[in-house]
Design goal:
Blueprint: H1 5-24, H2 34-46, H3 50-63, H4 68-80, H5 84-97, H6 102-114, H7 118-131, H8 134-150, H9 154-167, H10 172-185, H11 188-201, H12 206-218, H13 222-235, H14 240-252, H15 256-269, H16 274-286, H17 290-303, H18 308-320, H19 324-337, H20 342-355, H21 358-371, H22 376-388, H23 392-406, H24 410-422, H25 426-439, H26 444-450, H27 458-470
Amino acid sequence: MKENPYRHDKHEIRELLKQFENLRSGQSHTYLDEESFERIIDHFDDKDEMPRALEAAELGIQQYPYSASLMVKKADLLIAARKYSDALQLLEQAEILDSTDIDIYILKTDAYLALDQQEKAVALLEEAIQQFEDEERINLLFELADVYDDYEEFDKVFDCLKHILENEPNNEEALYKICFWTDFSGRNEESIRLHQNIINEYPYNELAWFNLGAAYQGLKLYEKSVDAYKYAIVINEKFDYAYRNMADAYIRLRKYRDAIEALERVIELARPEDVIYEAIGHCYDRLKNYAQARFYYKKASHLNPEDSKLYYKIACTYINESTLPKAVQYLESAMRIHKMQPEYNLAMGECLMEIGNIKDAVVYFSNVVKAKPRSLGGWEALIRCLYKNNFADEAMQQIMIAQEIAGDKPLFLFYKSAVLFAKGKSKEALLQLEKAMERAPKTLKKFIELNPTILQNQQVVDLIARYKRNKSI
């Protein structure tokens, strides 16, 4: 019959606990060695019986007053109990007895940090790093990186991880972490050199290739980043994060079909995510395949129904196809979540204006103006709507308010001129147009878009021609 090691361990710990109870009650014949005390302490610690764990540690130290390992166990418990000074005092004794126990330095670090003595923690670890080698040295470097992270010395976190990888190039934890810290600290050039060195020595290190791609991406060298991700995928064809980043690089390069291919691979390898479907939708949007874009935006919205931006993007696909009632429907969905979002109100206003619902269009354009009073977009749309629907007086009133709130922008002078022409005040209109042309001749196209028939007015044509001769428009 096969022996059950778990049952054997359970029996052993029961026996040890019995002997421990005998020792506590003063039965002198009971004997426990150091390792037994350590197991008893761990047992109580695992059960969250802190007072009993401490009692076992104290009894163990009484039996073995020169046991550094038992002192370390007790110090660990004292730190958990927030008795940091007591723990440090005990760890000092343990270090005298056995300066080769790495846990002494890690626990001292925890105590110093709890006491907000970061400088002591850093000095201790830096000294200990020189004392230890191999795996223990690596562990201390990770510990130091965490200290720097806690105190927001982020460049030093990068330095620690770089040092680890220079000593242990295939350390997965460091490879995963340094990718984030490269992006965070912007030290992309250093990361490129570091990972190129790793790849030269270990060409099949997929994480090194991935990190190299991410560093190139950080420098906007998207072609090089794609090449690096391709190597990572050749080594591990199921590396979904490499496909994600590659898709992003392709989008930056405007290679939308390649990006879609990479994103579809992500969907095959990982569970569905709204951001992936949204990214595919974006690519189809850029390719002007609005039906497919809409299909993926809808898939994204099913996974994240509270994201108003997705409904807005669906609405935009309908706007691009001139299916305005459907666009209005999805804009209403977006605004049920974020009612006053300027972008949504602006789009709704444009749709309603095209449909002929001028009254409501004005309300939505007014919302944009309220939300972003110093931005030109809302004012431009509101004034244009009023002008095109023959509300000249209201348009002029809004121009005056816009000038007061958003500043005396040349666009408002062009619009004032257009309104004055509409009201039959040609002399004033020409004066305003001249002022506008003097300040921003390139904005003339906005004036003409407002009323293209204005070019039938010979005085306007002559004024524009005069500026074209004198200035570059």
